[in-house]
Amino acid sequence: MDRQLKELADKLGILTEYYDAGQDRKKYEIDEETIKFFVKKLGYNADSSEEIARSITKFDNRRWQETLEPVYVKEQGDLYIDIVSTTEEADTALNIEAISRQDSKKYTLTLEKVSQEDREINRISYAKSTIKITNDLPVGYYDIKVSKNGKEYKSVLAVAPIKCYQNPDLETSKLWGYTIQLYSMKSERNWGVGDFTDLKNFVDICAKSGGNVIGLNPLNILEHNFPENASPYASVSRLFLNPIYIDIENVPEYKPEDIADIKDKLQAFRDSDIINYEEIYPLKIKFMELYYKRFKEHKDSARYKEFEEFCNREGDELNKLAVFLSLYEERCHKVWGGWHAWEPELRNPYNSKVKAYAESHQDRVNFYKFLQFETFRQFDQAAAEVKKQGLKIGFYRDLAVGVGQDSAESWSDPDVFIADSGAGAPPDAFFPGGQKWGIGAFNPYVLKAKAYEPLINILRANMRNTGALRIDHVMSLMRLYVIPNAQPLGTYILYNFADMLNIVAIESYLNKCVVAGESLGNVPEGFLEALERKNIYSLSVLWSERALGWGGDFNQPNTYPEKAFTSVGTHDMAPLKMWWFGYDIADMRKADIITSDDVMRNNYHERENDRLRLLKALDISGLWPEDRKRQGDYLYGESYPEGMAEAVNSYVASCPSRVFLAELENILEVDKRQNLPGVDRDKHPNWRRKLTQNIEQLSGDERFIRNIDAIHRVR
Q: Among candidates 377, 383, 411, which has minimal Cα distance to 241?
């Protein structure tokens, strides 16, 4: 690679090479065209040697062109900012005033100059002075105003705690609870997909069984006009909730006679093992349109005033979402290519044509706001049940790593995403061709220029009603693998890791929300240690707690990390019974992830060895249930071992990790997986499988009772 191009890439945080997470640590070198693509997307040019040289100079001089950074993110007790001026003005007296965004309190900052760096640019001598702020400022965000030589300059100071919020109960107790995919919940009353009433009812079940946490899939809004695009990790906006979780019969405008003619249809939805998004979601929307019409007839009601307050509170972001959904609804079947293919004046939410459209379609825009109003109300009801039942953590929400490129979030603020590209995963042992998720990735320079507000808003929205937040692919705080849309592979883009960590810590502290990071995959050296110092919990699963990562003997529970949320598996992994019989191997062969029968046979052989390794680990632990001891090696063709789920749940729950999460799929002996990564729904019914038991019968199910007893014996 050209030496100057590599230098520019290094400065911009574009990796020119990386190693994968495989056992042999294979090295990948990035081609120049990919590097040049990202150089341009980050605001620089690299089409010739001369342009590369100018870009290097531009990058080196960029900080010297502005008096202040757009934002300073610093830890308490280590508050520094730098100020650029001409050298002759460097020692001129200055004054800094800070106004808290939390309570509007004003602070006149006391300052101490600690160093000065000089540079000449275009025959002008500049000085960059590093100033220490000696005040003890509370955690939070401050608008700062610097007065110097009769001029005023503005920036933002973000003051972070040394560590993320620590729930006091996690310091003294080993807690446990459940992970659920809310959409997969079965009940006698829902409409064929789990809803917020199911969640509220499950809170009661969790509390009565001794649990204190409920892990949830991402709850964010998905595509309104294409409900079959059901992946909770490809949302339209991470700021708002999915209306499919509305319990129609809990909407205040509902009347029992409304559904008299569709009871058989609803029962068919409930009886199906697969969620029929294509019919269920439009049906719910049809009823919500009816209830919106009734709702509007009472504009003097307390409920309507609550709606207006909700709209005012959610402000511009809610308005942009509602306008986007209305525009998208009109164009999605006429204009192919999403909002990027709309008329140019409609691609900017602040264009006068968009404003005029919103005014002329105000009723439809308000309907989409009404959907969010009711969705939030019902989620709040479930959260109120958490407080009522006294769960020590409560909801443990999941924040997706990105958002769809054709989304309200990207339309609302396109500059903050790297254009014409999307995040994914590099090649590895499981996916040698890599994974192209196609979700938008933040542009690190624009994100900082916006004082990290897009990230702050997303964190804050997903910490709502939340005792703990799982950050999916937490490595994205440091780096993210980004792929040009027109190419199969890309490279890593680096972020300001210290700033990103501290922003997470601020929101964790302000919202009293524990943070955990999903870090399975290609983890940079030193990354996990940095998370631990910041009090970000790790995630640990049985299948990765092994002597050789994924291939050796299973580690005994006493070796598991203490500061972790631990489970047997995840939504992307085969549940225990499926794993035991190797049905997941057959699924991967059918989907061509396993590309030959020989490879499939090798997988079956290795799985048989893994089953023996698991039996050996359970034997050593002595955690088989007393009345269901191991009867043999359970070779292929034999039945599922009695007590297997109990033994495995006891095994993992006995670890020192502060939180253990039991999966209902394992308790109910489900033998089909929820999601098969790397394939679309034409090859596997991703995000569509329901649990095998209605929630109303769960507490009386023998498997449920025995597994909860097994967990209580060790935790």
A: 377
